[in-house]
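Journal club prep, shared notes

We agreed each person brings one worked example of a sequence with its structure written out as tokens. Mine is Phosphotransferase. I'm keeping it raw so we can talk through how to read the token line rather than staring at a rendered picture. Sequence first:
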Amino acid sequence: MLASNLSAELHDDQAQKVDKYLHQFHLSDKTLMELSMRFRREMDKGLCRDTNPTAAVKMLPTYVRSTPDGTEQGEFLALDLGGSNFRILLVKVKGNGDQKVEMESQIYDIPDLVMRGSGSDLFDHIADCLANFLEKMGIKNKKLPLGFTFSFPCLQTKLDEVSNFALLLPL
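Then the structure, token by token:
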């Protein structure tokens, strides 16, 4: 019974109604395997230079050449711009194989006027938020590596390089 995991409070007739509703979302192993194979084909198509333009799943290179091995350490800043919020994180990575990560973060609103305004206004606002965060964390004079994640179209040509970004935001 699918509804059995919900709550013991459900009466039998309610549980049957929930089961009937949820049953239509149940996929057989055969269907799941077919979906998996189709998804894999589309990913492969997206990875191929010749078929990428027509692929349903676009695949882009990450330029990341290795995965973390647990020896990484240090302090880093991360900026995450998406929707109407902007988040700044201070990430402390303890190496020595412990894989321990500590994070402190702050979310800043982005006024609609700024989000719909010029690129210069947006990045001025980001700089003001970053200055505020650095002051609050007591690290304004510290030089730290910084990563920036955003949901705007751009052309990434290297791990740490984006081009044509200025063409996408009005300055």
